[in-house]
């Protein structure tokens, strides 16, 4: 989705502050490039290794970020409950796969169970998310923006509370069905778990992009996002389309939830806050409302964290969050609409 | 032109519509017969757009009824009304700016299942508006106002309507384009589509109309054959600027 051209290209005035912005931006980018280049030349192997780890986390962030961006795109609501939906999906997958089905170690049968529970968790995420929309957000659709926003915050607490009641207040260890075997690919150590994340997340992202861009339903979603009344005049059932959007957002969060549980081997009731914040940041970084932006933002944040934590010459793990949000703030200064977002046009 | 002797297609009976405490349309009764062009004119805030939006199901009437081909349609959600054969090109065009012309046209045929028929309609629409063919892969929001208006009308036609509702199709257009739009409206009628038209450009709207209704602050003030009203000095003074 590209920005709407204003028709007539206006000539920009060159002011001292604009020059300062440009210069400082070049400086910031220069420092970042220098830092990455320094690490790349001093230890290329480690750099590649850290990149793989970063992409791995980034893909999970991207899956969650998609949920924020899809929902924001269609009803302009920042769904604060989305991170907690991810948490609840992780808990659900733990309860079903690990506890109920007892799949706690790598085996052929357990891989099949994992795939089945992956589907089940996606359905779970979709059902919970559409129910939330139906119960809480739909009736506030014509209310002032603050009302659904606060409701979303409230929903976030409700989901956290359910998680808390379900698994208690301490983090729970998950005996995963994925082996901790590693491969070596020309010197880079790749986790089997990372491969699973790649193998599941990338096709999911492709399918989602396909649904939104190429299907009739997807076209209805994009139309509804742009103009609800005009969509009704086309014969689009707007309520149903919004429900569908919440369903895919929820399914993506469900997939992220089970993969988190299986690859990190731990779930906790407050997981949603932490991951939700990062994923939301990813969505904003990429340009909220833009599907590809969410994926790009997720990958970038995964990489930033990974480079920051893992590179020999760098600030180190303690500065992880600081780095992520510093970069977010800088990006917002230079590109307020996000990387792929629309540059906001001021109405005269 | 005078009223046709065909059966009624759309019947609005004693319709009252309001937003909150404000009543925009009060006790309006009108009729559109098959094959007609019916114009609804009146000054700003007379309730014209409100009436159209109620017919299309975007607004719910407070009282009164709307019948389309003998079936009651008031209170039915908007997307179901499209399925019955009413397509609406809304005020302010309301095209989907971030989508291409092509996608906009496809959305106009959203409910249609007959691929062959859709293809035929599309060819017809592109024949009516060759400009759209030139711009087919362009994002709709980047087009000029006139082109966007053509797209809005073309998009409504893609639904293969029995009744085409046009709300201010000439708004903001250059005079030469206004003429083109009105010519196109007459051409569309020749293909058997019934048209309910709202226009600020009252004189042109009356001239092409078989029958016309004049609204004033939500009330029906006058009705009559289009040509007769166009020649009426009282109308001329009140609505035609002179």
CATH class of chain A: Mainly Alpha
Helix count of chain A, per DSSP?
A: 12
As a percent range, the share of strand residues of chain A is under 5%
Greatest interface (CB-CB under 8 A), with counts per chain: A-B, 22 and 30 residues
Gap between N and C termini of chain B, in Å? 22 Å
Number of helices of chain B: 10
Overall, the morphology of chain A is globular
| Number of self-contained structural domains of chain A | 1
The low-confidence runs of chain A, each spanning 5 or more residues with pLDDT under 50, are: 1-9, 344-348
Care to count the β-strands of chain B? 10
The CATH architecture name of chain A reads Orthogonal Bundle
SSE string of chain B, helices as H and strands as E: EEEHEEHEHHHHEHEHEEHH
From the structure provided, what is the oligomeric state, counting identical versus distinct chains? heterodimer
Give a short account of the largest sheet of chain B. 6 strands, mixed
- Mean pLDDT of chain B, nearest integer? 93
Q: Compute the CA-based radius of gyration of chain A.
A: 21 Å
- What is the average of the pLDDT values of chain A? 90
**Distance linking N and C termini of chain A:** 24 Å
In the predicted model, the low-confidence regions of chain B spanning at least 5 consecutive residues are none
Question: In this structure, how is the largest beta sheet of chain A organized?
Answer: 2 strands, antiparallel
